Amino acid sequence: MKSITSKLPHIGTTIFTKMSKLAQEHNAINLSQGFPNFEADSKLLEMQNQAVKNHRNQYAPLSGLPKLNQAVLDKANSLYGSNYAEDEICMTAGATQAIFTSLAASIHPGDEVIMLKPAYDCYEPAVALFGGKPIPIEMKAPTYEVDWNEVQDKVSSKTKMIMINSPHNPTGKVFSEADMQALIQIVKNTNILILSDEVYEHMTFDGRPHLSVAKYPELQSRSFLTASFGKTFHVTGWKLGYVLAPKLLMKEFKKVHQYNVFCVNHPMQVAISEYIADKNTYLNLPDFYQKKRDQFLSLIQNSRFEFTPSEGTYFQMASYKNISNEKDTDFTLRLIKEFGLAAIPVSVFNKDEKCRKMIRFCFAKTDATLEKAAEIINRI
């Protein structure tokens, strides 16, 4: 066999894999890929170990363990005033699988999918795989506001879906009430679906609320809401998440899900179903990560980088325009090789990969790691 016609001919290895690999090769401090370098709560780990010992190691139900499903439904309905029912939830192998399967279940060849850039890099390839056409709209740097008039202008008879992400990766932007109301007006009296990536729902700062699509009946009724236990509970390697969607959409989601992964990790579902009973495990996260953000920004406040404090997520954007005229891909490569520090070049998420001299740091790290990273940043 000499060749195969690629369905994604222009797609290479994800930037996260590249930067983490380079960080390892050069023994650099890794503030690139979005994962904590501290351990999860020992209580959660022991619950998972106990589930294994209790022989909870065979297939879980397709939709997820009933106990965990009910806990998540109670959480969402309590936090957002929604009314999700037991047949409107499905556990997934991480939020990326939830996003992929949502698109697989709903996007047909020729459908247009509006997405806001910079965007997490799985969005466009997944849309393209199913014959959809990504319609990128650039958020307005440096504040990364959404021009909803431009979104409205891009809506056509072929628009099948609008993809949103708040709190937003990589910018740290958190949608406001005005943003949500603008979205409601755009989809009103249409059949447009929403795919809402809410993996950082419990990481908002300075008193900002997370405005989930679940909070708005006009949006809940047309939305796939994707979320991540891995992000929330510092166990990204568990690859465990979920999707919430109205019954009509969930029925189609499960048709694909059953032939994609069928079900997801059983003992980990058992552990989280027990762990999540304590609401503080997620309600305390905003304070926890705001302290991380504030510590990091305090440590680098005298550096030559420019930044506006992140509104949410565990990422901080920083401009290096006062330091170099290099492309961000070249600048971050030099950071690794010359300074021993890994960050993410934001252009890879932008429309047409436009470079705005912005890079992304992950501050979900131990105090010691942040202090060492700051020493390097302050030398640049």
Automatic annotation (TrEMBL):
Domain Aminotransferase class I/classII large stretches: 28-377
Entries under InterPro entries matching the protein: Aminotransferase_I/II_large, Kynurenine-oxoglutarate_AT, PyrdxlP-dep_Trfase, PyrdxlP-dep_Trfase_major, PyrdxlP-dep_Trfase_small
Stored SUPFAM superfamilies: PLP-dependent transferases
GO molecular function: transaminase activity
Superkingdom of the organism of origin: Bacteria
Cofactor(s) of this protein: pyridoxal 5'-phosphate
Keywords carried by this UniProt record: Aminotransferase, Pyridoxal phosphate, Transferase
Protein name: Aminotransferase
Native species: Psychroflexus planctonicus
Lineage: Bacteria, Pseudomonadati, Bacteroidota, Flavobacteriia, Flavobacteriales
